[in-house]
Amino acid sequence: MALPNKVKTLLSDAEQLSDYRDCSSYFYKWLHNEFAKQPVRNLINARAEFIDRLLIKLFHVYDLAHESDLALIAVGGYGRGELHPYSDIDFLLLVSEQPSEQVCEKIGLFVTMLWDLNLEIGHSVRTIEQALEQKREDVTFATSLLESRLIFGNHIEFEKLKNLLIEKPIWRSDEFFLAKVKEQQLRHRKCHGTAYNLEPNIKENPGGLRDLQTIIWVAKKHFRAETLQELINHGYLTHEEHQELSECLENLWNIRFALHLASGRSENRLLFDHQPNAADILGFGSDGKASVERMMKRLFRIMSRVRELNQMLLSYFEQSILPDTAEQQVIELDRNFERVGHQIRVKNPSVFFRRDQLFVLFEHIADNPEITHIYPSTIRTIRQVRRRLLGDLQDYAACREAFLRLIKHPNGMGRAFTLMHKHGMIAAYLPQWRNIFGQMQFDLFHAYTVDEHTHKLINNIYHYFDKSHVSEFPICSEIVTRMDKPELLYLAGIFHDIAKGRGGDHSELGSVDAIAFAKLHRFSASDGKLIAWLVANHLLMSVTAQRKDINDPGVIKDFASRVKTERQLDYLYCLTVADIRATNDNLWNDWKNTLLRELYLHTQRALRLGLENPMDQRDQIRDKKHQAKQRLLNHGYHEEQIDLIWSRFKANYFTAFSEQQLSWHTEHLLNSNDLSQPSVVVSNEAMHGGTQVFVYSPYSGALFARLVGVIGSKKAQIQHAQVLTTKDGYVLFSFVILEVSGDAIASARAQSIKRALEIALADPKKKIRFKKNRSQRFKDFNIKPKIVLRPHARKDRSLIEIQAVDIPGLLTKIAEVFQTHLLHIHAARITTVGERAEDFFVVSNNDYQALTDEEQAKIHQALRKKLNAETE
Known about the structure:
- This protein has 872 residues and is of the alpha+beta class.
- The strands form 3 sheets. It has an 8-stranded antiparallel beta sheet with strand order 9-10-12-11-15-16-14-13, sandwiched between helices.
- α16 packs antiparallel against α19.
- The protein starts with a helix and ends with a helix.
- The model is unreliable at 773-781 (pLDDT under 50).
C-alpha cells in the first residue's frame, strides 16, 4: 500500500532533526491506526517504503547521492521489503574502492542521524571483494545477501555483485543447506526444543518465523525460487500446503506486528507483560487471561503447523540437495511399513484407512531405536488423514488395542510418544488432550503450556527406565524395577493436568476423566482407581514436603494415612518427581530432591510399621537420639557431655532435625569454649540439599532480622529456615541457603558468610547493608501477600502464616514488623517454593502471651502495608 501523502510531504519538507522525528511519529501513529483496517503485509511493506524514502532523502542531505561509486543496498528482511514497526534496518554501503576520508565523514554523519532518529540499524561498508570474503566466512551474511535490494546509487556495482553471487557461489548448495539446518538445530536447542514456552519468541522458537524463512532461503539458494509458490512447480508443496504456509506467515506477521506496537520496541519475545496488550490489539478482547489464552492457542497452533511443514520440506530438500541420502538402504518392517535410513515410511498411504495402522507406525518406531524421524511423504499422509478424521481415534476398538500395546511397550513412551505428540496423534486419540493443546498457565512455576509440560513429564518417567539416568533419578530408577504396571504411571502422567483450563479443581476433574478412560479401555477396577487416585492426589506429596514439617510424626502419620499403601507411595513419588522436574528448568534443586526423598523414606517406614501402630513422637525422639549419640560416641565424646547439652533442648528440637543434624549441632556445641556466647557453624559441603547454617545465641528479639539481613547481603538465598528456643533462654536458628542459581554455597563463600554472621552476633549495633535487587520478573504476576493469624496449640502462643512473592529482603521486612511490635519468635519455619515464600511463625507478645485481637489487627495491617509496598 502506498504511503499516505502527508507522510511523503512531511518527509520531503523535513530539514531539522525535530522535523524528521515529527514525521516518524506521525507515520507510527498511522501504522497503529491502520493495523485493524488492512492486511499486515501492506503495512510492513509500507514501513520498508518509508525507510527507503528516509534513507534516500538523507543520502541527498549528506551529499552521498553524488558519490557515483556508492550503492545503498537493503539486505535481510529489509531487503525483502518486510519491516515491522521497530524491526532492525540492515543495509550495505557498496563501494568500488575504499572510500576517502571525506566520504567516510559523510557516511558517519548519515549513520549518526539514523541513530538520532532512534532507528535500530545494522550497517557495513564493503567493496565487492570484501563482501564476497565476508560471505565466505559468515553464512548469516551470505543469507542476507540472497535478499539484497538496491535502494539508491550505483546499480552497475550492485548488478555486478549479484552476478558474482550467482556465477561464483562461495557456498555450494549442499554446504549452505547443511549450515542452515545446523543453524536451525542450535536455535531450537536454545528454546529447549519446544515451541510451547509460555513466553515464546515469535522469530526464534521452533515453528516461528525463522523456520519459515529457512525454507525460503534454501529454496532461493538451490532452486533459484523467489517465492514459496514456486515450490509447487518443483513438486515440493501442494497447493493446499502453500496456502497453509501463507496463512501461517500472515498470522505470525500479525502477532509480531501487534507485539511491536504493544512493547513500543523491536521485541520478538511475547512476554507476559505484553500479552494482554497484544491480544487486545489483535482483536482477541481485553478480558485478561481469557483473551490472552485465545491469542496464545492460536499462536501455538500456527507454530505447530509451521514446524511440521518445515520438517517435511527440509527432508524433501535433503533428498534433492544431498544425493547420498536419497540412496539409503531400505529395510522392510512389515507389509505396510519400511525403514529408509533413519526414517520410517508407509508403503501405501491407503493403509491408514485402517486407523489402527497409525499407531502401528509408532510401534515400529518403539521397536527400532534406529528410527529417529518420519519420512516426509508419510508426514504428508498423516496430516491428510488427521484432517479427515471423524470423531476420536479412541472410538475404534482396534486403535484402543494398538494404543495399549504402545504404552506397555518398553520404548513406547520415549521417542514414539514424542513423535505422536509432535504430529498431533495424542490429540487425535484423546479429546481432552485437544483442550490442553497450547493451554497457558498463569503462575510463577510453569515455563511451558499444559500439553508440553505433560510431554516433558512423560519423558522424565521414561528416563527412570534408562540405565544412563540412574544417577539422575536413583530412587525412581530403583522403584520402577519392581513396579508391576508402569503403564499406570504413564497414564497418571497423561491425565494429571488434563483438566486444566476447564474451571474447577483440575485434579478432581482429571480423576473423573481417568476413570472413564480406564473403563473404556477395560482396565480392572483396582487399576482404574489407582490411576484416578494418582491424578486426584498428584500435588499431595510436593505440598506436604515443601509446606509441612516432615520431621513431625503427626505430619507423616497424616500423609501415610492418605497414601494408604506402599505401592501407591511408590507411584506417587515417581509421578511427583517427574512433575516438578517438568515444570521448568530452574525449579528442581537438591533441596526439593532431599525433601521428597526424606518424606518418601519416612512414609515408607511408617507404612511398614503399620498405620494401626504408627510411630509416636517419643519413639521417634528415642530413635534419633540413639543414632545421633552413637555417631558422637564414635567420635570420642562422652555420654554425660552429650546428655548435658541435650537436657537444655525441648522435644520439638529432636523432631525438627535428622540424626545427622543433631550430631552435627551437638558436636559444634561440645567444642565450644563458652556456651554463654553466640556461635555459628556452616557446612562446607551440601547437607540435605543445600548449605546448612546453624546459629546458637542468647535470645534477642532483633536477632532474626539481623541474621536474615546478613545472609541476604551476601547474595545468598534462604531456601528453608527454622527457629527454636531452648529451655534456658537461648535460641537456635537453622538455615538452608543456596546460591541464586539453586546450587549449594561453595566452601570459600560459606566461610565468608560464617564470618559475617559472627560479626553481626558480636556487634549488635553494626549496621547491615542490604542491597535491594528486585527481579523484573515479579512484575509479571499480580500476587498479593496472604497473611493469616490464628490460635496456636499452646494458649500463650499465636501462629502467623505468610505467603508472598519471595522478593529479596522479604524475611528482613517481616522481622522488622515483628520487632516494631515487640513480638517474640518461639519457632519459625520458612520455605521457598519456586518464587513464592511460605512462612510460619509461632509468636507471643512482649508479655509472652498470645496476641490479643487488637494486636492481631495491628500486626496484620502492618505486615500487609509493608509487603504490599514491596511487591507493587
